[in-house]
């Protein structure tokens, strides 16, 4: 929540065309979905987290602590980190471009976005397996990404389910995001994610 407020404040300052930070901390609900994150240099806004895996049919573990997130200034840096340098993106790449790049094969299961329509800050889900091999999960999102996801896209077509739960450890309500979605009723509520082969 703190992060979102900061972005609102910076956006407001940029819109005013002044460089002061007197808007810092002022609450705003006027964020447009298209609000750019470019120019936000105070906080690294593109994060990568490792999704864990569980064999098909095995029970999900409980009580898993939130994994650490590695965060970067740009999406390209995050993707480079997530793919161990195998995928280099230019700064104009879009979610659709990524869809055509077979990112799943490069170890990227999905990308979560702060805003609807695959816009804004990102959380990339790294995975060592595909859903065809093992189900994937993040049992508890890193604090900076808890209750923040507004849209998401899967890059692993072998995941038939892409469930976003409103509580950690796959509790509460959930939305199956399919191949891509806006979270809609679960907007800014996701606390755990489960990508399943079935
Ligand atoms: Ca959001």
From TrEMBL:
Protein's name in the database: Lipoprotein
């Amino acid at each position: 929540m703190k992060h979102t407020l900061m972005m609102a404040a910076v956006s407001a300052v940029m819109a005013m065309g002044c460089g002061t930070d007197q808007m810092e901390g002022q609450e705003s609900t006027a964020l447009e979905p298209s609000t750019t994150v470019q120019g936000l240099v105070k906080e690294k806004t593109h994060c990568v987290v490792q999704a864990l895996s569980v064999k098909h049919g095995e029970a999900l573990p409980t009580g898993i602590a939130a994994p650490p997130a590695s965060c970067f200034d740009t999406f390209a840096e995050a993707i480079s980190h997530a793919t161990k340098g195998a995928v280099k993106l230019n700064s104009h790449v879009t979610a659709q471009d990524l869809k055509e790049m077979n990112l799943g094969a490069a170890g990227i299961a999905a990308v979560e976005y702060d805003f609807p329509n695959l816009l804004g800050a990102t959380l990339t889900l790294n995975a060592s397996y595909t859903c065809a091999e093992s189900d994937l999960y993040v049992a508890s999102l890193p604090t900076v990404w808890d209750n923040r996801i507004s849209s998401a896209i899967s890059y692993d077509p072998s995941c038939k389910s892409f469930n976003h739960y409103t509580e950690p450890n796959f509790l509460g309500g959930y939305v199956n995001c399919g191949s891509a979605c806006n979270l809609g009723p679960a907007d800014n509520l996701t606390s755990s994610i489960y990508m399943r082969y079935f």
